[in-house]
Amino acid sequence: MVVDLGNLVRIQVKATREPRVQPRRGGTVPVYKFFVRRPSGRPAYVDGEFDLLALVALDIRQIAYLPPVFHKQTVFIRQPGSGSGKQFSDFPFAKAVAELGLGLL
After folding, report:
1. Coil, strand, or helix at residue 70?
2. Which pTM value belongs to this model?
């Protein structure tokens, strides 16, 4: 899969080493928690600063690509096979690029 080289796609990468236990009603769930903001003391990201957000789970080597509509302060993605909710497989690169209106070669 290759992006048309006539278009530049700026990607902000956030990574985490392993899932964390997230309390939920009726128990706990292992989730990957990503803080989608700059380190403390720096200004927040502004619209247009990057095109896609790449959320990387280092232990399982999976990446979720989110278009700007999903940029929030914190994003939770469930560990694969841990029930319903956002999964890495829900956010492939091709889908995120399509949201930007860019084609793939």
Report:
1. helix
2. 0.81
